[in-house]
Amino acid sequence: MEVVADHVKALDWEAIEASLDAYGFAVIPALLAESQCRALAGLYDRDPLYRSRVVMSRHGFGQGEYKYFAYPLPKLIASLRTTIYPHLVPIANRWNAIMSIDVRYPATHAAFIERCHGAGQLRPTPLILQYQQDDYNCLHQDLYGDHVFPLQVAILLSQPGRDFTGGEFVLTEQRPRMQSRAEVVALQQGDAVIFAVSQRPVQGTRGPYRVNLRHGVSRLRSGRRHTLGVIFHDAL
C-alpha cells in the first residue's frame, strides 16, 4: 500500500483545503486506478468481509443497499483511512476552533480510533454502496456516535456513461435564514470527493457562522454504480 500512501502524500493539500473552505467539498481526480476500483467493487459479493448489510428502502434511506466492512479492513481501505486522515486533521481542528466547538482531533488515525473505542464506538464504518436502476440515496449525514470526525471521503468505483447513467453525487448546504444550496459533484471512476459530514464554518459580514450539510445520490437512470465510503470515526 506504499503506492497509495505516496499518492496521497503528493496531493495538493493546500488546494484541497481551499476548496473545502470555499465549498465544503474537494474533488481528487484519479485517486484510485481503474484496476483498484474494479477490485474493490468485486468485493461486494464477498459477504464474510462485512459486518452488516443495509437495504435502504427498509429504513426510508432511499433505494439501493450498502455493506459495512468488518475488521480487519481490506488493506487498501485501511491504508486510505490512515494516510488521508492526518492531512485532514489540521482542517478539522481549525474548523472546530472557528465554530467554537471544544473538540480537537489527534494527529494519527490510530489515536482517534482509540478514542472512539474508549467511548464504545467499536464498529468500523467504511462501506461499499451499490445502486441499480431507479435507486437513489436520500440526503443524510453519517454521524454514528458522539465522536465524529467532521470530514469523510467517497470514491466512485464505477464509470459514468459505461457502467451507469444518472446517479450523481449531491451535496446541500443550509445557511441560517436562507434556502438550501445544492452542488452536483461530477466524478469519474477512481475520483474521490472529500466533504463535510455535517457542519462547516462560513465567514459572514458579522463573523463566522455554521452551515449544515447533507449528501446523497440522485436516481440512477440505468446500470449499476458502486461507491466506496471512507468514514474516519467508528460506530456505536
UniProtKB/TrEMBL annotation:
InterPro entries found in the cross-reference section: DUF2086
Protein name: Proline hydroxylase
Gene source species: Trinickia soli
Domain of life: Bacteria
Pfam families: Oxygenase-NA
